[in-house]
Amino acid sequence: MKNNAIVTLEGVTKRFPAGKGLFTALRDINLIFGKGEFAGIVGPSGSGKTTLLNIIGSLDTPTEGAATVLGKRISDLSQKQAALLRNEGIGFIFQTYNLLPVYSVYENVEFALLLQKINTAERKQKVMEALEWVGLADRAHARPSTLSGGECQRVAIARAMVKKPALVLADEPSANLDSANSHHIVQTMKKLNRELGTTFLFSTHDEKVMQYLDRIIYLKDGAVDREEYPQDS
Amino acid sequence: MGNGKRTWLNVSVLSIAFVVIIFFNGMLDGWNKQAKTDTIAWETGYGRLSHPLYDPYDPYTFSESHEVPPEGLQEEITAGHAVPVLLTQASAYPGGRLINIVLKGIDPAQTLLEIPSGQMDSLPPEVRGDAVPAVIGARMARSAGLDTGDRMIVRWRDVNGVFDARDVVIAGIFHTNVPTVDVSQVWIPLETLQEMTGMRGESTYVLLDKELAEKTEPASGAAYAGGWHYTNLDALMKDIEAVVEAKSGGMMVISILLLCIALLAIFDTQVLSVFRRQKEIGTYIALGMTRGRVVTVFTIEGTIHALLAILLGSLWGIPLLGWVQKTGIPMPEMTDQAGLAVGDKIIPAYSMALILTTVVLVFITSLIVSYLPARKISKMQPTEALKGKLV
Question: Which residues in chain B touch residue A111, judged by CB atoms under 8 angstroms apart?
């Protein structure tokens, strides 16, 4: 697995100041995620799922231990290097979609490519391709405010996938969606995982999502409680 | 209030500040230009050679500061490049009242100054009689209750200090923006005044035309100047400059206040924007934007207020300022009491330098007030920003 590893976590611990003391959000996490995995970090609220995704996404750094993502040790990265890593190698999908309301669907998806300074023609081709993947090519010029929750999340998936990152981090992607939409967006991601070989890491406690995962890591009080491989059973 | 409305409110206030700054400064520049042009045309010419004892601010020096102009200057006077003027203090009795005046002798044939001295020779002999013909300004005429053809007694002291008196008849009344050639001034023929005072061939100062002033300027001690004191155009204009500078200070305070109000609104909007759009900022960072770039985006966004304000200001400001320039700004009658040249109307002068300076000022100050709140973004934790929490 290690040769194929996209994410390596070694003794990752994260503490936050809380009052006069420190609150330990993650304790001694040791995990490896390989290329093409479709894995989920599961646990109740406050178990440290989002903190772990933030560290993997280079939005935060561990207090102790080492997190290596796409060959880069997160603690050693400068702000600019972390931004470059996110821009080129990591896609984010948020619970609340985080679409930019003043931009159209097309512009929201195009945004990630603008940062990579890709020329207009190539950008257009890539954006339309990403919108095709999620079935929203016909809504390219719509504003996010005119879309349903499921459609918004599909735009967010297209935005995360348009640059074909090696890793996509999805933080509670189905939390704001109804059952049908939840199934639909996870199926979309699963399809992209199979077709493009992209590694997907979820934080979730939604059983509808969990049934599609190849690997489930249960977190409890900031530590790995157990791991399951549902597809093997 | 929505973001759109807030933006347009800011842009409107800034556009008002932009246009008002140009208007105020244009008005001052216009006044400055007009005052200088009028003062040159009516009072000073382009330079002045004066008796060494002459002090325009001290009337008591007038009785001592007279002499035949230096010999070299006579040629220039004959050629019309220089105009001698003789001053003496006097008292006038229009309608039996006493007023203090300055009698000024000037060649009726001169053309250097706009003073209609030619009118002194225009009175028919039966009207003139043995009186001295004089021209006076409209302010003097109004305050003394005089009209063309009216007479008054004028009393003066000659070179020996002996009092004498004669009738003066008003040959013409002129309108000028320069009160210093009008208020308490009575212009009579130079030769007559020289004869009345016993100062034959003498004058207090000699005014120079542009050509002669340019010749004199690099060498103040020119041979024809004799021992007379040369005052160049810049020095002659220093009173106007001083008043305009004082007025500029007041106008600048108003301009700065206006600009500050507009910039405060932009600053406030930017602070609110950074506060309310934290989630968006977090998303930008998650998508791979560097914090520096996010700061740049927000700064540019704030500075666009200035750009829009300049565009909006141009839309309504160009026609308005153009109209004001065409019609002028009427000045109240009492303004001339200030003792400086103020026309009935001030025609504002909007130079390209003034417009560009204002554009740059508005742009740079907007850039600064947009940058200051945006700078906070660089200290923001992306994980907190994504939650939409306070910094």
Answer: 287
